[in-house]
Amino acid sequence: QKEVEQDPGPLSVPEGAIVSLNCTYSNSAFQYFMWYRQYSRKGPELLMYTYSSGNKEDGRFTAQVDKSSKYISLFIRDSQPSDSATYLCAMTLNTGFQKLVFGTGTRLLVSP
Amino acid sequence: DVKVTQSSRYLVKRTGEKVFLECVQDMDHENMFWYRQDPGLGLRLIYFSYDVKMKEKGDIPEGYSVSREKKERFSLILESASTNQTSMYLCASSLRTLGYEQYFGPGTRLTVT
Question: Which residues in chain A land under pLDDT 50?
């Protein structure tokens, strides 16, 4: 069993839809939870991070962590074609720990 | 603005060749990483370095080595390339105190024939 599980998609939605992307994990010691976005032929870039449980909002994006269920989510409101990318979840033990554990990524396609 | 650059976008090498992939970052980051990215397997850590001349094995170090002689530069070496090393190679860097925020280069698509 992988340490972090993520549905590979692709997930296809019309413009304006609400998108929900999810990851489950097995290591209860993870404290920091990140979402990276990767456009085609580019490297990943950090979109959002959350410490421990709870929600964090940034514009159209909301990250949610449920440590009791070992489940994290990224919600995208009013999705745009420019949101079409692969979204990778990642986790680590603490801020100073060098290693991140990544999910395999979910490919999102937003059609106009 | 952080910039991580990689020496080549595309590379084609023959089996048995020694391959060098170079990565340079311009933000004085202590940590540097090499990953490979394959469909269905995601990002897998090959090696990382938290200081000059320091290196740590990641999850899949076999067949690879690294070199970090200067803080801004981290090299990945394939001693004898094999076809199963055909992949996308991504370099990243981060501050030691903000390990969750990694900055990635654009990647090198390596094909070994």
Answer: none
